[in-house]
């Protein structure tokens, strides 16, 4: 007895069998690659950051391979270097706060990393950062690194894999898209429309919001430290690196996020000036002019319109960034927005079509 067959001769049980086999393959891939999930999501984020740069180079006649190489060399490697140094200094800043359990924080953000080989106590971090700041040479850095060389080597390997993964995504994106359209989905299909919407959403969130947060954080840290150089005695901005990071993160709160933080800092500096010398009140005024007027106008007028799209509600983006790291660890800042985009675009593009069937 034969099953009722479709027009191409395949029986329904055989089709279901292939779908079950595909599901098993997906589960195998998930189990095999779950350790590298964070690095894969980081590579996807870097792809969306580098894609506009590579496409602009290609429009100037540069080959896909060379444009991918130049994008990584000129954009990604300096970006990762600055972000790495910024993270080290941020951890040192956190260690300066007595109530901060840096070791517990590292275990949450970097699960699976050999925490006992890393400098986590306040004294260890201070020694590490002091040496890094005063004499950042290989001879002085080698003894500090030797204690956790195994962890460093493993993470360096993961970073190398991420760079290679990003390189092939940037170089072969047109080939991959062409193969996907000709083999997996048709251009006129619902699946293609949904995946295109996801691509647009990830481009908006990754190249837009995430890059905006990182840029604001790094620039704010620089400005805070420069202001501290001219600050009156005893009236410096406290924990400048930490507050700079908060300035970037709080930017996802609509309307009053950064203004609220500036107000708290101005109030703190004004109270300090009142308690020490009223002539020092010029410093909180200068801080507000630099950050609340000049810096904020530059962000609103140039940085945010250039980097951030308006595809998603700001509140959704805020919760994605706040809950992502809390749930998944360090890579949650990339995975949280990814899950948000996939979900919101499904509700926006596909759910009405399913409901109307």
TrEMBL record:
Sorted alphabetically, which keywords does the UniProt record give?
Answer: Membrane, Transmembrane, Transmembrane helix
Q: Which InterPro entries match?
A: AI-2E-like
Organism per entry: Natronoglomus mannanivorans
- Its main localization is membrane
Q: Which Pfam families match?
A: AI-2E_transport
Where located?
Answer: Membrane
Q: Quick check: keyword Membrane in the entry? A: yes
Family that this chain belongs to:
Belongs to the autoinducer-2 exporter (AI-2E) (TC 2.A.86) family.
- How does this protein sit in the membrane? Multi-pass membrane protein
So where does this one cross the membrane?
Answer: 16-49, 69-92, 144-170, 206-227, 259-275, 281-299
**Protein name in UniProt:** AI-2E family transporter
Keyword Protein transport attributed: no
